[in-house]
Structures are given as structure tokens and as C-alpha cells.
Amino acid sequence: MKILSFSYCFPNSTNKNWGIFVFQRLAALAKIQDLKVCSPVPWFPFLINKDVQKSGIELWEGLEVHRPRFFYTPGIFKNKDARLYARGIRTWFLKLCKEWKPDILDAHFVWPDGVGVSLLARELGIPYVITLRGKLYECIKISSQRKQCADALKNAAAVISVSGLMAGEAIKLGVDKDRITIIPNGVDTDVFSIKDKRMCRQKLDLPMDKRLLVTVAHLGHRKGHHEVIQALAGLPDDVNLVLVGGPAQGGTAEELKALANKAGVGDKLILTGPQPYERIPLYFGAADASVLASYREGCPNAVLESLACGTPVVASDVGAVRDILPVPDAGRIVPPRTVEPLEKAMADVLSHEWSPEDVVNSSRIRSWNQVAEEVQKIFKDVVYSRREEI
């Protein structure tokens, strides 16, 4: 069985952490399947951006990654992105199929990947599968995108959702519930594991005499940092908040520092900036608890990775959080965009003595290899059913 996977969000030379969860699933799947990756590169003739990945073919951590270029219009006509995506890579796709025709197409986001892939798949009569991640929530708010996504999902041979909530949204769009399978993300259990707290704090130069809450997320507004900082103001003086992440979507370190000063907790906020992937486990290991107060998520890796390190989590009730965070055994879940429930939950979690081993065991963390096996089964079922029909 040959699989061609599509993801606009995939690591590249300018951002090695971009779409790391997509890479991890595909790397695990490539161990047991013949697989190639297509990560299309958006291009606009009058936009010069030194960070844009060049088109071509490369070997990325053992995966053959094709990066064909497609035309798009930045800032306007965004509802046409998926069609431009399909049109732009069509020539490359047809050429590849003459040399190496895939048995199934695997789209990692509903937009633009899923919709674009659906157009190409139907042209050549190849079955396709779409994975639902947090991007779906943006699309269903826009009428034109909602219609295009609904059409692509209803015609997909199967739909994988990283959360039960998103599976529900797909059903509302008209997808047969029997064709939807919920498969949350996995964790690199070789990297994220229980570590000595003091050792982690020493390596990161973090306070030894404080209780630490750690948030690993970019500084964009939808990550809920404003609410966490306001909630921090109601916690004891020995509690510090460590924010690990860089500026994004209008959110900056300067803005959050100003908010913390206004709330009277400027001296309790530690902003680390973006950190290399290999240092993230140390931050979870250094924490007494982690916090993720997002307004929207798919399947938040930060929650899974914290649990894999044996660190309890306080998270807002979005995306796959209900699916992956066992309450009360490994943390607390609160409504998004709220301060008082968040403050109470953080205080509650900090008041308990947590066994890292118990947190890991209650969470039933799965490796990416296990996830890959579940995904492979869906693909096999689709391909074999297709062959029986023919």
C-alpha cells in the first residue's frame, strides 16, 4: 500500500518545530508503510520573504518530502486558497502518479489540504482520508470555507479526528458518524518522560524555592495567557508562572509583561522566549503543574507531553482535552476564557502532592508508533474496500 500524505504545516529549514506533530505521526507511519510527503509551498510573485521554504524535493529525517509551489493571494481571496492549492500542485501530482501512483491520499488538515486533495483525488479516482485538527474551527465560521470543507469531508473515504468535539462538528457538517474515527495525537515517549525536578530547574536556571506553573505555547492571544496572568494574581506569593514560547498572532512578551505588572505579578512571571524542542521536557519536568488556557485547540501536544513527564495539567475545555486529560487523577479542566475557575483549579492542583508515576499511568499515554498502527488500519480498510468495489 502506497500512501501520499499532504500537509501545508510541516517542519522546514527555517522552522524545525513547525508541524512537529504531523512529522511525528508520519515518521512513525513510514516505519510500517511505503510513504511520501507533500508539503506545498505558498508563493506570491510580489511578496519577498526570506523565511519561505524553497520548492523541490528533500530528505527530511528519513522522509521523502516534496515541496511543489502553488500560487496564493496573501490577505485577500482566502476562500480560494484550497482551489489554488489543488491547481498549483496538479502538474506535479499527475507526474508523480505516472511514476509512483499512491493507493490513498492522506490530508492532515481540512483546509487547505483536505479540500485541495479532495479535488485532485476525485479527478484520478483515488480514495482520500482527512484528519481533523483545530483548523476546522476557523473554517466553519466562514460560509464559503464551511461549504467546501463539508463537501470534502462528506466525500472522504474516512475521517480521522484528534478529538471527540471535532468529530461532533464533522457530523453537524453531514459526515456519516460511522466513517469517523477518533485518534488523539501520540507522544515521543523517548523524549518526554519523568525527570528529577531539581535537576531540571538547575539546568534551566529556574527558582528552586518557588512553586512553578509552566505554560508551553506561543504568545498569541488565543492561548489564554491573559487569563492565566490574571489568575496568578490570586495565588500565593511563592507561585511563579513560566511562559515558554515566542511572539505570534499579535501577542508579545512586552505585552504580557505589561499586563503582569498591572496585575501586580510582574516579579512572578518568567518569559523564556521560544525554546528548542529538546529543552521542552525539562520545563515540564521542572514544573509543579502545567497550564494551557487556550480558547481553541485540536489535540494539544502540550497537555500530552506534560502528562508523559508525570506533571499534572490545568487546561481549558477545548479540543481533545476531555479525551486526553483524566480528571481528577491527572489535573483539572476549566471553561475557556474564565479567570476565577482557572485560579481555583491552579490553587487546587498546587495544593496536592502528585505522584509522577500515577499521573503517567492514569493518562494512558500512547506512543506515536501506536497511533501509526491505528491510522494504518484505517488506510488498509479503505484500500481493501475500494479494491472489492472495483
UniProtKB/TrEMBL annotation:
At the top of the EC hierarchy, this enzyme's class is transferase
Keyword set, alphabetical order: Glycosyltransferase, Transferase
UniProt key word Transferase: yes
Q: Give the E.C. number(s).
A: 2.4.1.-
Citing just one GO molecular function, the answer is: glycosyltransferase activity
Q: Where is the Glycosyltransferase subfamily 4-like N-terminal domain?
A: 73-190
Keyword Thylakoid present in the record's keywords: the answer is no
Under InterPro entries, the record lists: Glyco_trans_1, Glyco_trans_4-like_N, Glycosyltransferase_grp1
Q: Where is the Glycosyl transferase family domain?
A: 201-362
Q: What is this protein called?
A: Glycosyl transferase (Group 1 family protein)
